[in-house]
Design goal:
10 helices; 17% strand; alpha+beta; globular; single chain; 7-stranded mixed β-sheet; 411 residues; 4-stranded antiparallel β-sheet
Length: 411
């Protein structure tokens, strides 16, 4: 069946205007010459009805936690001494160039002996199980935060294009407690708090996390196969699965908007990939875009009648999606120096609440450096129902022409 549309969505001319805007780049602002495209509503005429979705998904994107919990060799890579030396040399050479971290590219951060492995890992992230851990990938305590950030960013550009992650243009993000009020869900981003983070996907194709300092307790990671979750919903609650495919969900933007944009986005939770014109026989995979923290923070609009409030059925669906992820999650603990990469197309990830070391302990508070990476459609990425699917830096959060920045601490 052809895609459906509840309204005309973005007409052709505005889409053309958006594409022109993202390609009009001032290299004095964006050192690599590429601008993050940012958040946008889906193309509503590219949304397929529930009847077109598969009853059951098969393949390597469908996995159970027991397949990996006791088999770390299937998802954990320990860098060899020679690989660490190559990364170290590339970082030192880049630091000597005196370029900013935002200017790191594959060309000026060469990793010749790691190239083939990183390419295979990227394919596994995009088309396979969707997660990978580099165990003690970077000697953070030996190198310090600056060299570690350069090395981590340099690894990242071999996997995808780094994106801006917030209104401040943070292209190197920091997951830290910044002592903000986690009850102010209409304005506060939860990564700045110690609160539990429910299962969600970020605004990028792949998210990376480098552990710089651990919490006193908690702050541990969970990952779930959303294709396994889909199969469970289809078997147990197809009515919920159907509701999650409908573009009746509103997502808050928490004020991180460019001029002329709406403060929320209407979309679905589950989508089908768009067809591949060159290979029409290719599967249209089930794609998930979800963050309950952004769905449940819109009361300021629904109270005024601007958008509808969540229905009882939607509340139940959100709770059931979370509970189903909990049933099938793989738990992992990041030690200092570990690097985790997770796909946002067919996995959801979560974080447990945590407690930092006391201020007078002399120990650093929990700190993860974060990368949001784009893998565009033309370079092996998923065919997404968004106007920017073919853009190099698709997704992310871009507010007007806010320049990218790479600080060593959160702010």
């Amino acid at each position: 069946m052809a895609p459906i549309a509840l309204d005309a969505g973005l007409p052709e001319d505005p889409v053309r205007s958006l594409k022109a805007r993202v390609k009009t780049v001032d290299s004095d602002i964006f050192p690599d010459g590429i601008k993050t495209s940012g958040q946008h509503p889906p193309l509503y005429d590219h949304i397929y009805p529930y009847s077109d979705f598969p009853r059951r998904i098969e393949g390597q994107t469908v996995w159970r936690p027991e397949e990996y919990a006791n088999n770390p060799e299937r998802w954990v890579h320990q860098f060899s001494a020679s690989e660490i030396e190559e990364i170290s040399r590339a970082a030192d050479d880049f630091i000597e160039s005196e370029l900013p971290i935002t200017g790191i590219t594959k060309d000026n951060f060469p990793l010749p002996s790691l190239n083939s492995y990183l390419a295979a890992m990227r394919r596994e992230l995009i088309n396979g199980k969707g997660f990978m851990l580099f165990k003690k990938g970077i000697p953070v305590n030996e190198w310090g935060n600056f060299k570690s950030a350069v090395a981590y960013f340099g690894l990242g550009v071999h996997i995808g294009y780094p994106l801006s992650q917030n209104r401040n243009g943070h292209i190197l993000g920091h997951v830290q407690n910044l002592y903000v009020d986690d009850t102010k869900i209409d304005s506060v981003r939860i990564y700045k708090t110690t609160a539990r983070q429910a299962f969600h996907a970020d605004e990028c194709d792949i998210v990376g996390l480098l552990c710089v300092a651990r919490a006193q307790s908690g702050g541990e990671s969970d990952v779930a196969s959303i294709h396994h979750v889909w199969n469970i919903l289809q078997a147990e609650r197809p009515d919920v699965a159907e509701l999650l495919t409908q573009p009746v969900w509103y997502f808050d933007r928490k004020g991180e908007i460019s001029e002329g944009e709406e403060p929320y986005i209407r979309g679905a939770v589950f989508y089908l990939e768009t067809p591949d014109p060159a290979h029409p026989e290719r599967e249209q995979r089930v794609y998930c875009k979800w963050d309950p923290y952004y769905v449940r923070s819109l009361k300021r609009f629904s109270d005024l009648g601007i958008i509808p409030p969540l229905s009882a059925a939607q509340e139940e669906a959100a709770d059931l999606l979370e509970a189903t992820c909990e049933r099938v999650k793989l738990h992992m603990v990041l030690e200092v120096g570990d690097i985790q990469f997770v796909s946002n197309s067919h996995t959801l990830h979560a974080r447990t609440a945590y407690t930092d070391h006391p201020p007078n302990s002399g120990l650093a508070r929990r700190h993860l450096m974060r990368l949001w990476l784009s893998v565009p459609q033309g370079e092996g990425g998923w065919r997404l129902p968004y106007w920017d699917s073919k853009e190099k830096k698709r997704g992310g959060i871009q507010v007007n022409d806010q320049p990218p920045v790479a600080r060593l601490e959160g702010d």
